[in-house]
Amino acid sequence: MSPESLVDVFREALSVIVLIVAAIILPGLFVGLIVAVFQAATSINEQTLSFLPRLMMTLFALMYLGHWLVQTMMDFFFEMVNLIPQVIG
């Protein structure tokens, strides 16, 4: 296996990781931003107020995107398994 193909595999692995993490984190980030704006507008300084909505949004994202996330990881895994003969030979 040439160094260029190894770099391509590494690049694809990083893109899959970023895609999966972004799909989980970004909905919670947006809900946290909305709650923070609400807290700033109403002068509520309770730090635990934003935890539950962010947690719920992250769980909903995992629940609704779970099939797609697992399918993406499986596709990447099968692609890596198919590359094994090229790495060995």
Q: Order of helices and strands, N to C?
A: HHH
- Coarse shape: elongated
C-alpha Rg (nearest Å): 19 Å
SS-derived structural category: mainly alpha
**End-to-end span in angstroms?**
8 Å
Major sheet size, sense and barrel closure: none
| Mean pLDDT across residues | 90
Uncertain spans: none
Based on DSSP secondary structure assignment, what is the total number of beta strands? 0
Helix content: over 70%
Question: What would you note in describing this structure?
Answer:
This protein is mainly alpha-helical. It has helices at residues 3-42, 51-82, 84-88. Helices cover 87% and strands 0% of the residues. It is elongated. The mean pLDDT is 90. The longest helix is centred in the N-terminal third of the chain and has 40 residues, at 3-42. The chain has one domain (3-78). The N and C termini lie close together (8 Å). The chain has 3 helices and no strands.
Defining traits:
single chain; 89 residues; mainly alpha; 87% helix; 0% strand; elongated
What's the SSE blueprint?
Blueprint: H1 3-42, H2 51-82, H3 84-88
Compact summary:
Keywords: Bacterial flagellum, Cell membrane, Cell projection, Cilium, Flagellum, Membrane, Transmembrane, Transmembrane helix. By secondary structure, the protein is mostly helical.
